[in-house]
Amino acid sequence: MKYNFDCLYQTMMGMTYEEVEAAVKDNAVVLFPAGVVEAHGPHLPLGTDIFTALNQALEVKRHFELQGGKCVVAPPFYFGGTQAMTRQFAGTFTSSEENIIAAVSDILASLDRFGFQNVVILNAHGDSVQRNAMLKTIVESNKTLKMKSYWVEYEDDAQYMGFNGDEDYLIKIAPMQLDEAFEIEKWPEDEFDIHAAAFETALMLDICPDMVREEKLDGLKPTMLKGDDRRKWNEGNAENIALVPKAYVGDPAGYRYIRADMDKVYEAFARSLYRYFYEGK
């Protein structure tokens, strides 16, 4: 039986060492997709974050190269960290902050040894364990490696996410226009639609439709987490698992009224990166 590994072939995994050497000579920017293997309700695969990060990296690469830039995609980083409630569900692999730092540091050191000058981490998993580990790794690696590592944030989110805005490893991307990313006929019933819910389900139906178990969506009720319950979700303690009994947060059934199309978002993202690396803006 033959399997389709096309998305991985389009990363460095499908390149020869000579092709990597050529990319280094071309001063190609490395896009490094990162995520976690994590429960995403009964309807989405455990690898949802990986698939979305890899899709983003490949689409940004395509638009980046259409503008004349040089770009390669590193093999995705799978085994990140999860503090939130999904760590209580079967299939969620979670690493400690220390192990994430060690693993990602080794990956960045390898890219540096190859001769690359710039790498941009595209993180599709917003859990605090993952985020803190990645940021610490970037800061420390930039002290010891010749290569420069970068984190990206939409410029209108940077302050909210705790950045001053003048960090030398931070690339601020043009704000995402929600109406360019999604056609929304009706908003989800649950405004706290943050994990394996309407928007993420709609996105997966756009990029990996065969992986969505649509038959499982019938009967999934909104979780409607508010106030202190949101804190409990983030803390991830087993005694509070009844808040999210099916490993989603939000209104998965609301996907029926949402259609995702991220092409314009990725084009704008790539344009921001191109300006940063090629125009100094």
Structure, explained:
This protein has nine helices and seven strands. It is 38% helix and 11% strand. Helix 3 links the parallel strand 1 and strand 2. It has a domain of 192 residues: Rossmann fold (3-Layer(aba) Sandwich), CATH 3.40.50. The mean pLDDT is 95. It is α/β, with parallel strands linked by helices and 281 residues long. The protein is globular and about 55 Å long. The strands form two sheets. Strands 2-1-3-4-5 form a five-stranded parallel β-sheet, sandwiched between helices. Strands 6-7 form a two-stranded antiparallel sheet. Helix 3 packs across helix 9 and helix 4 packs parallel to helix 5.
How are the secondary structure elements laid out?
Blueprint: H1 6-9, H2 17-25, E1 29-34, H3 48-66, E2 71-73, H4 97-114, E3 118-123, H5 128-144, E4 148-154, E5 170-173, H6 178-181, E6 182-184, H7 198-207, H8 228-235, E7 258-260, H9 263-279
Parallel strand pairs: 1-2, 1-3, 3-4, 4-5
Antiparallel strand pairs: 6-7
Helix pairs in contact: 3-9, 4-5
